[in-house]
Amino acid sequence: DLSRVFQGIMEAPVEVITDESTLVALWRHENTRVFADKLCRDQDKTFIDKVLAEFMPLHFGEGLAAENKETRWFCDFQRDVKIDEETGEEVGAPKVYEPAYSWDHVKTKAYDYLKRYNEAYPAKSMNLVLFDEAMKHLMKINRTIQQKRGSAMLVGVGGSGKQSLARLAAFTSGHYFFQITITKNYNDNALFEDLRNLYIKAGVKGESVTFIFTDAEVKSENFLEYMNSLLATGEVVGLFAKDERDAMCGDVRNDFVKDNPSMEENLLNMFNYFMDRLRDNLHVCLCFSPVNAKFSIRAQKFPAVFAVNINWFMSWPEAALVAVSSAFLGSYRIDCNDEDRQRLYSLTGAFQAGVRDMTEVYFSRMRKYVYVTPKSFLSLIDFYKQLYTIKYEEINVQERSVNVGLQKLKEASQFVEKLKVQLKEQEVVLKAEEKKTTALLDKVMIEKGKADKKAEIVNGQKADCQAEADKINAEKAEAQVELDKALPFLHDAESACNSITKKDIVEIKANRKPLDIIKLTFDGLQILMSKKVVEVRFEEKMINKVSAQFLADSYEDFSSKEVSDMNFLANIMDFATNEKDSINDETCELLDPYLRHDEDPLKNWSPFPHPVLDPSLAGKASGAAAGL
């Protein structure tokens, strides 16, 4: 069993193990498949999960244990079918053992393989409902027969889907699958003949073969003895004569030489090679029922038969029963709405589950087993269809009789009503006219009241609108005053910008050691245009023959590069024309140290007795600096 765990882990290629969590998930999945699947009680399976949950934090860490709290499923039939580019024919889908992409994706792929199976074998087509439990069994069987020397025993009562899922799993895995056909004259010799054909396919031709064998096909206990030998060693005594064995060794000679170039080419080595390939490729899928009285005895007599991977088919859960019911009754015509149909599906599942629970009560009281199998549930559905057809027809006959009587009563009632109308025709006309006059008067009064209320509402809204208009005009006047104050500064700035010429820029470029006021002027320009400056630090600056500590300039690091740009002047003009409205409060705050000044020495925070960026002082240093 321990080797099977690591054999399962090694089935997954390295590229699908993308991280530690996936590896731990694969380890947990394989342990669950090997140790938990063979157990026949839910409490035993729960115990295995508990042991794994306690083991993982100790050896893998709390993080990986938390990520893999639930068992993630792995399977190898999720990839899409590939097409040969030269021939255009299907070459099959790659079999990569990897984590399930999603439960819906795996189920879709399974139904796709089921559809292809029914197309390939129309005489043996299967109408299966792949509910969650069935999907899990399919993935378990597929995992087992895809492993070298992997054989499985499916244990469950009749009708639980063992054979159907075994055939679908073999088809999904791309195996040739075979099941003997029991006849009155089927004996040991007939079984040997079938086994010889399987040996040739699996051992000589190297094809993957799944042999499905049920306890109903055990005509003699000798059959199980042969199965025991086949699973234990691969050899069945008396299956081949010596000349037949030698002929098979000759058939595998080329493959033997190719795979084992360093081994001696003799009959013994070639026969061992044949047997190894046979055991790798021949997978036995045993379908047994635990209800069979000989089940426990055979477990003692044939150990190799019961040493394979065992998979117990437990009772279908109620959700599975409802899914099967919806599948088999979904296309059946039932005269009801969708809500009642869903309740019918749930009711059939509840019937089966209730009877199954009652069998346990019966066993606890009477010590006698009564088995309610999935096949019983399918019989219940068939019986319901038959009974529904009979009862529906009976009700239809009764309904037609009642409808005829009701129609006669309806016709008589209509005739009486017609006579009443004729007798009261004139009276009705007078009353109708009177009602029209009264209704018209009432309508006029109602409309007048509505009009009065509407006039009051309109007058109120008019006063509100006038007050809002007065408020807007006042705000507009205030805004105009502020605008008139700001316009002279805007015109000065535009005039200063337009005063800068290419000659001024060339003059600044030529000045290798510009004065501090020019450097700080360019710092102000960098901030205004939201460009990069150096980090804040202080250094000695000389402006208008006054030396003081002030912010370090960015001329050498950034501004000099901007000046060297051929588009420098064009960028400034574009900013003045198109980007000036993007200046925000944050920019003004960053420029404040360069522009702040107060005539009162006590309130002047600047280290200089004048604004740092004073156009008149900058003009003494450079004509372009004044404009900037």
User: What is the subunit arrangement here?
Assistant: single chain
Biggest sheet strand order reads: 6-7-8-5-9
Beta content comes to 5-15%
Number of H/I helices: 24
pLDDT averaged over residues: 87
**Coarse morphology:** flat
Distance between the termini: 86 Å
The main pleated sheet reads as: 5 strands, parallel
* Low-confidence spans: none
Q: Whole-number radius of gyration?
A: 47 Å
Q: Count the strands?
A: 11
What labels would you give this structure?
about 65% helix; single chain; flat; about 625 residues; 24 helices; 11 strands; alpha/beta; 5-stranded parallel beta sheet; two-stranded antiparallel sheet
Q: How would you portray this structure in words?
A:
By secondary structure, this protein is α/β, with parallel strands linked by helices. 63% of the residues lie in helices and 7% in strands. The protein is built from 24 helices and 11 strands. The chain has a 5-stranded parallel sheet with strand order 6-7-8-5-9. A two-stranded antiparallel sheet has the order 1-4. A two-stranded antiparallel sheet has the order 2-3. A hairpin with a 2-residue loop joins strand 10 and strand 11 (546-551). The longest helix is centred in the last third of the chain and has 75 residues, at 425-499. The chain starts with a helix and ends with a helix. The model has no long low-confidence stretch (mean pLDDT 87).
